């Protein structure tokens, strides 16, 4: 019999006599693509020392590592990770931050600032003149009249019409029409606008006029003073800030969040403050003891208000991270038109495992609970967002039509496109996942290790990929990777199974972990990162052939000579009826003959054990004298 092909891979489910001639009972470190019995190239050491747990950060073309077991997830250019002992983290290529921000403490204090009354007694007169000297062009002019007690006093709104009519519109600036921009082209006749009759001899009246979209200061008058407004362009004067006038009324409340302006991370809100009643007249609120965060990712604080005309918590101010006080005088109409997120952004909990992304949400597990985030908000982990299972979750994997959720003996699928629509169904009651370290994505399928062997699923019932070849196989998986459409899973013993194209083989390169980066397979050996299959030396291959019976177990046969063509170092053991009858080693390329001792030549079947770093091209033998014993 002549054996020339050795590309069938490992097969242990059936008895050795039923295997294909190109398969092996032992098939280790063999390059099956060569077709011959050729060893794989060994490891190529890199210059990088690496910690026991590591991953490749594709967005920044770098390795990340840790001394403790860590779950990694690269998502939208950032790396998310959790080690079960510390708070889950995020790395954006520049800085490490917690995954989410803690809620602010409830330390804020509030004081209502009552605004001084606006002037009520004064006289405004308008005269028309046609000589063009010292008068304003005919137009509509808007004025605010305040007391000298401060800019935050209430203001009386006065409007002078182009027909010389004077309207006193009152104090409620939020309910009054906005001032209009004046016509700056001179008219044939002009207006003389004269202020007088202010009776207060201790507190002057401030006069502001609306010009070029701002309220500019004009002058102040005291008791018995008279002032004629005659200068059109007052843009060099001081002007009122937008929040200068008292703007708050009714019953209001506040919440505070911490915020990172670089990536939009925002904490959940503090508890809702006490209700603050400003009554019917406008005032301001002085807020003090605003808490600060020691989290380095916090760049700002965000203050939200509800009440008055605001039916939802609305952003009124974004403060610097260390600001501890704020005078709220932001009118309802001048808010930032941004609302407090409807879901509380709780930070990711300590102990979160198996980080995975699906449907634009991040998923993780704690014990029996599947936790998840809102869509597009990876830093928010509301405690009410979870699905519960009957035993601890051992891993997660994305599939073509859902998220696979594993326990040790079961596989579930979660479908839906948002937190409110997620639902879970049982796919298998006998195939679960025994190690999250075994989970990988191969094409559109999830691949992992169950108690029966290597499984796969695209969202349907799991199938055991290795069942037809290996039967039920126990793999104590400590790491895995997918490279060139081959699934690699590393056993605790150091042996690695390579599964692909209906071929299974084992690889023993002495590594304790594996990973893929830049389309290359890497392994860690003695603390150093090595690249597979590029080393100068060859791995030692090990092969044990099928049992060859020549079609019959019961016929007695004689095996005198075995011919082997090989090159390099090869050691071959000849077994007849399972017993070692002779062993030879070869180092040169040649056609070699192995003679079986005469007293050991008879038997019912023959088998070959071969190992080495050379290559075997062909084995040939003849079974003669087929007689019954």
Describe the protein in words.
The protein is mainly β. The protein has one helix and 54 strands. Strands 1, 48, 51, 52 and 54 form a five-stranded antiparallel beta sheet that branches. Strands 4-47-53-49-50 form a five-stranded antiparallel beta sheet, with no helix packed on it. A five-stranded antiparallel beta sheet has the order 17-16-15-19-20, with no helix packed on it.
Summary of the model, kept short:
The protein is mainly beta and 629 residues long.
Largest sheet: 5 strands, antiparallel
- Rounded to an integer, what's the Rg over CA atoms? 41 Å
Question: Into which percentage range does the β-strand content fall?
Answer: over 45%
Q: In percent, how helical is the residue content? A: under 10%
Shape: rod-shaped
Low-pLDDT stretches are none
What is the number of beta strands?
Answer: 54
- The overall pLDDT, averaged over residues, is 92
Structural class: mainly beta
Topology:
Elements (H helix, E strand, L loop, with lengths): L1 E2 L5 E2 L12 E2 L1 E3 L15 E6 L3 E5 L4 E5 L4 E5 L2 E5 L6 E3 L4 E3 L10 E6 L8 E7 L6 E2 L3 E7 L8 E5 L5 E5 L19 E7 L8 E7 L2 E8 L5 E3 L21 E9 L16 E2 L5 E6 L11 E8 L2 E11 L5 E3 L24 E6 L2 E6 L2 E4 L13 E3 L6 E5 L2 E5 L4 E5 L7 E6 L11 E3 L2 E5 L4 E4 L5 E2 L2 H4 L6 E7 L2 E6 L4 E5 L2 E5 L5 E5 L2 E6 L2 E4 L9 E4 L11 E12 L2 E7 L2 E8 L3 E6 L6 E2 L2 E7 L2 E13 L2
List keywords for this structure.
five-stranded antiparallel β-sheet, 629 residues, mainly beta, rod-shaped, single chain, 54 strands
């Amino acid at each position: 019999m002549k054996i020339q092909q050795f590309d069938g891979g490992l097969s242990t489910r059936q008895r050795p006599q039923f295997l294909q001639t190109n398969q092996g009972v032992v098939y280790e470190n063999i390059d099956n693509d060569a077709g011959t019995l050729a060893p794989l190239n060994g490891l190529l050491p890199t210059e990088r020392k690496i910690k026991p747990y590591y991953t490749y950060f594709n967005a920044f073309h770098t390795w990340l590592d840790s001394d403790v077991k860590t779950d990694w997830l690269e998502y939208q250019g950032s790396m998310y990770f959790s080690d079960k002992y510390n708070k889950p983290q995020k790395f954006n290529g520049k800085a490490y931050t917690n995954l989410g921000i803690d809620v602010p403490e409830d330390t804020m204090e509030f004081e209502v600032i009552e605004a001084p009354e606006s002037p009520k007694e004064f006289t405004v007169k308008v005269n028309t003149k046609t000589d063009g000297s010292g008068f304003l062009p005919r137009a509509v002019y808007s004025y605010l009249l305040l007391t000298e007690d401060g800019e935050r006093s209430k203001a009386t709104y006065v409007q002078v019409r182009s027909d010389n009519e004077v309207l006193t519109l009152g104090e409620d600036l939020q309910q009054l029409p906005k001032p209009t921009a004046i016509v700056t082209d001179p008219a044939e006749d002009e207006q003389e606008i004269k202020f007088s009759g202010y009776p207060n001899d201790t507190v002057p009246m401030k006069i502001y006029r609306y010009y070029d979209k701002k309220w500019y200061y004009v002058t102040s008058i005291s008791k018995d003073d008279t002032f004629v407004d005659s200068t059109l362009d007052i843009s060099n004067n001081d002007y009122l800030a937008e929040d200068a006038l008292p703007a708050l009324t009714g019953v209001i409340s506040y919440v505070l969040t911490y915020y990172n302006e670089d990536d939009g991370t925002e904490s959940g809100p503090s508890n809702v403050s006490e209700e603050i009643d400003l009554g019917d007249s406008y005032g301001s609120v002085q807020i003090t003891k605003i808490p600060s965060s020691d989290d380095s990712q916090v760049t700002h604080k965000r203050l939200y208000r509800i009440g008055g005309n605001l039916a939802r918590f609305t952003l009124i101010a974004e403060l610097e991270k260390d600001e501890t006080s704020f005078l709220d005088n932001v009118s309802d109409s001048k808010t930032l038109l941004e609302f407090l997120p409807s879901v509380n952004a709780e930070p990711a909990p300590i102990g979160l495992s198996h980080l995975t992304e699906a449907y634009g949400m991040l998923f993780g597990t704690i014990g029996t609970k599947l936790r998840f985030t809102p869509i597009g908000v990876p830093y928010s982990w509301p405690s009410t967002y979870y699905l519960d299972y009957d035993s601890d979750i051992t891993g997660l994997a994305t599939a073509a039509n859902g998220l696979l959720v594993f326990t040790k003996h079961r596989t579930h699928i979660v479908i839906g496109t948002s937190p409110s629509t997620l639902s879970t169904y049982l796919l298998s009651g006998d195939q679960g996942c025994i190690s999250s370290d075994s989970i990988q994505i191969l094409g559109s399928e999830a691949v992992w290790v169950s108690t029966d062997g290597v499984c796969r699923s695209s969202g349907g019932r799991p199938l055991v990929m290795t069942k037809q070849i290996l039967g039920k196989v126990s793999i104590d998986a400590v790491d895995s990777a997918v490279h060139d459409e081959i699934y690699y899973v590393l056993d605790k013993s150091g042996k690695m199974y390579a599964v692909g194209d209906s071929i299974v083989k084992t690889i023993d390169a002495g590594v304790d972990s594996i990973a893929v980066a830049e389309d290359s397979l890497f392994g860690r050996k003695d603390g150093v990162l090595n690249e597979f299959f590029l080393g100068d030396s060859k791995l030692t291959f090990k092969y044990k052939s099928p049992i060859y019976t020549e079609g019959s177990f019961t016929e007695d046969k004689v095996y005198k000579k075995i011919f082997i063509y090989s090159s390099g170092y090869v050691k071959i053991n000849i077994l007849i009826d399972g017993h070692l009858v002779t062993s030879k080693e070869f180092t040169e390329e040649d056609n070699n003959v192995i003679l079986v001792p005469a007293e050991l030549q008879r038997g019912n079947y023959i088998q070959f054990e071969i190992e080495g770093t050379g290559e075997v091209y062909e084995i040939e033998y003849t079974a003669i004298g087929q007689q019954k014993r």
